[in-house]
Amino acid sequence: MTTRSLHRTPLRRRAFVLKTAEVVSGTTTDQETILTPTKGFRVRLTRLKVLQTVADGRHLSELHFGDAGNLITDPSKGIDILAVPNLGSDSTRTYLKNEGPRGLRGEVLSLRWRGTAPANGHKIMIEYAEES
After folding, report:
1. CA 65, CA 44: separation in Å to the nearest integer?
2. Per-residue pLDDT tens digits for 86-109
3. Is the dihedral of CA 60, 90, 76, 129 positive or negative?
4. Between 1.10.3470, 2.60.40, 3.30.70, 2.60.120, what CATH number should domain 16-119 receive?
5. Which of 61, 104, 106, 107 suits 40 as a labelling partner, its CA being 20 to 30 A distant?
6. What angle do CA 112, 113, 118 make, to 5 degrees?
7. Residue 125's pLDDT is what?
8. Beta bridge partners of 21
9. How far is CA 131 from the centre of its chain?
């Protein structure tokens, strides 16, 4: 038996706190920041849902970390492409605790409309955790 097995230091884990945010999207095809983490923390995405509340046709949205203009310029930061149907909704898969996509410290969560932008803002529901 080694000395190491006799002296185990307990791990101090931080409590998992699931946060939610509701945002209304813009109506341009430019990249827009939809969530900024608290200073010194990073965002761990659990789920994101985009809802179209006004009839506006089908739209595609790119979801990614950082300030890249689109997924083509930095595909490693991409999370998902959502197809929002007319008067419907679409969402990312729901990730388990500590398994969802995670940004870098201070890195924002961004969204960009592909193709034609919607004429009306869409409601975006974000479920996430902040990690140090």
Report:
1. 10
2. 999 999 999 999 899 999 999 999
3. positive
4. 2.60.120
5. 61
6. 135
7. 98
8. 126
9. 14
